[in-house]
Amino acid sequence: MRLPSGDPSPLPHTTRITGRQWLSHDTFTLNLERPPGFCFVAGQRIGILVGPHERDYSLIPGKTPEGLELLVRSVPGGFVSSHLSTCPLEDPVKFTGPSGHFIHRPSTRAAVLVATGTGVAPFAAMCRSGLRGFVMLHGGHASRDLHYRKLVESAAALYVPCLSGPSSSSPEGTFSGRVTRYLQSRLDAGEYDFYLAGRREMVADVVAIVDARFPSSRVYSEIFF
Amino acid sequence: MKIYTGGGDRGRTSLFSGERISKDDIRVEAYGDVDELNSLLGAVIQFLPQACGDQNEDLRAIQSDLFRIGACLATSGEDPSFEDIRSFPEDRTRFLEEAIDRMDDELPRLNQFILPGGHPAASWSHVARCVCRRAERHTVRTIRQSPSDDDAYGAPLAYLNRLSDYLFVLARFVNRVTETPDTTWKKA
Question: Which residue in A122, B10, B96, B117 could disulfide with A43, CB within 3.0 to 4.6 Å?
Answer without folding.
Answer: A122
